[in-house]
Amino acid sequence: MGCQEEPLVQKVCDLYMQISSLESLKPSKDVNMIFTQLVLTCMPPTPIDVTKLCKRVQEMRSKLIRLCGEAEGHLETHFSTILASYENPLDNLTIFPYYSNYLKLSLLEFTVLSQHFPHVPTKVAFVGSGPLPLTSIVLASNHLTHTSFHNYDIDPLANSMAVALVSSHPDLSKRMFFHTNDIMNVTNALKDYEVVFLAALVGMDKEDKVRVIDHLAKYMAPGALLMLRSAHGARAFLYPVVDPCDLRGFDVLSVVHPTDEVINSVVIARKYSVPLHSFDQQGLGPIILPTKCSEIQAFNPFNHGNMIEELAVEEQLS
C-alpha cells in the first residue's frame, strides 16, 4: 500500500504533524481536542494493516505511539493529582474522562480471564500501573474482590501518587501493593502470581515489548496466565501491536478485538508447563507451535457482535 493511497493514513499523518508541533502534551483545550480527533479517526473498524504501510508511515506511527503514551501519562498524572485532593479519592473516579472505557475494558478482561481460569486468583501482578491504576482498582473493586494486586511501575513518583489514591480505602489499601521496579529486574517474585497483566505502554516498540514478554516467559510460574493489551486496524496508530507469534513460551488462548469505544485489544496466553528448551534436550529438535500464528476470526458471543475474537485453530477444532 502506498503512503498516499489511504485517506485515513493521510488524516493520521496530518494529526501527527499537529501533535508534533504542540509546545506541551499536558492536558489543555488544544491537546484534548487534537487527541480526541485522533482517537475518533482511528476508532472505526477498518481492514488496514499497519505493517504493510510504507517506511515513512511506519516511522511516523512509532513516533505517534510514543507521543500518545506521553500524553496519556500527563493525563493520568493530572487526574491522579486532582483525585488525591478529595477525602475519598476512589469515590470520585468518574471525573476521569475515560473512566467508562476502563469499566468496559476491565469487564472484558475479567470475562476473558474467567473463560480460561475457572477459579478466582489469589494474587495477580499488574506491570506498568502508572499514577492512576484504574484497571487494578476496577478489577479489585468490581470483579476480583478478594484478590491481592501487586502493581509494578518503574517510576517512583507514579507509585507514590497511586498509593495516595488507595491508602484511605478500608479494603483496597489492604489488597493493593506497589513496587517501584523495572520488571526486567524482577525474577523469582514473578512465580508468585497466577495472572500477570501487562499494560499497553510497557514496551513502546516491538523489540522492547518482545523483550519484556520473553522475560515474563522465563520467570512466570508454569501454567500462569498473561493478559496483554494490543491494538487492531487503525487503532494500531495509537498503541503497540502484540502479534501472537511474539508470545514465545506461551500458548495463546484468545485474542479479542473490541469494535466499540474500548480501543485496546485483549490477548490472553498461558505459560507453557514444559520449557521449550527441554524438547531440544530430549533430542526432539525445535518444535513448531501452530497455535501461535494461525487464528481464525469469529464474532465474540459476549457482546453481540460488538467485537471480533480470534481463536487458535486447534481450539476451534477440538
UniProtKB/TrEMBL annotation:
It is an enzyme of class 2 (transferase). The keyword Repressor does not apply. PROSITE patterns: NAS (PS51142). InterPro entries: Nicotian_synth, SAM-dependent_MTases_sf. The keyword S-adenosyl-L-methionine applies. Pfam families: NAS (PF03059). One of its GO terms (biological process) is nicotianamine biosynthetic process. Keywords: S-adenosyl-L-methionine, Transferase. Its EC number is 2.5.1.43. GO terms for molecular function: nicotianamine synthase activity. It catalyses: 3 S-adenosyl-L-methionine = nicotianamine + 3 S-methyl-5'-thioadenosine + 3 H(+). Synthesizes nicotianamine, a polyamine which serves as a sensor for the physiological iron status within the plant, and/or might be involved in the transport of iron. Belongs to the nicotianamine synthase (NAS)-like family. This is Nicotianamine synthase.
